[in-house]
Amino acid sequence: MNSRQRRGVILLLLSVLCALGAFAGVLAVISDVNSKVGPETTAYRVKSAVAPYTPLRAAQFEKISMPERWLSDTAVTDLRQIEGRIAVTKLKAGSLLQTDMIVEQPELQPGQQEIAIMVDAATGVAGKINAGATVNIYATFAGEKKDAPSQSRMIVAGARVLSVGKLTAISDSTDRTGRTSQAVPISFALSTLDTQRVAYAESFAEHVRLALVAPTTGGAPADQRDRTYTLDKDK
Fold this sequence. Notes:
Layout: H1 3-37, E1 40-46, E2 61-67, E3 85-87, E4 102-104, E5 113-120, H2 121-125, E6 134-141, E7 151-164, E8 168-171, E9 180-190, H3 192-204, E10 207-213, E11 228-229
Antiparallel strand pairs: 1-2, 3-4, 5-9, 6-7, 6-10, 7-9, 7-11, 8-9
């Protein structure tokens, strides 16, 4: 082996040693990063905004991986945790799903009954009332006598919505034009007396409307006389 060949072999060996050193350095960096970040785990991110009181579906969330040490104790790591639950507030797109964002879908409490009525879609729902919402139920009645004024009454305060059905076309038998309107079946969890009030209003009131209220307020007026309104009160 001449001197040129020896130099070539030496340079080749040096290149191999440098490559091994660089590889070892990369492994050391990766190991250091892994030791700082730790193992990864599954989490779920909101794909698009979810309205409050809306029943949750797996399709509304996307699976992501992130370091376990960066997750809070309330992070949802298994979509089975959302079964039978609803959102308690608006879930924004891109938010990490947490267990404190969701609650059990409301059910009947002891002493309550479930009653469902058809509510006009435009004046009673307007797409903003969902399962779990709290509403006041108003009914408008014609005057009892010929010259008596019509009345609007809050027949139930703080009614809890159990479910909201699909938009349904119904015909109004009192409409001579034969026009159809759209209504939504809504079921409520009510006491026996409130159930009777709603049943009476649906049968005899000219209109039944819902008003969405904050769940913490209850919706009942401080003065019970405010439950009934006639136009002459504003005079």
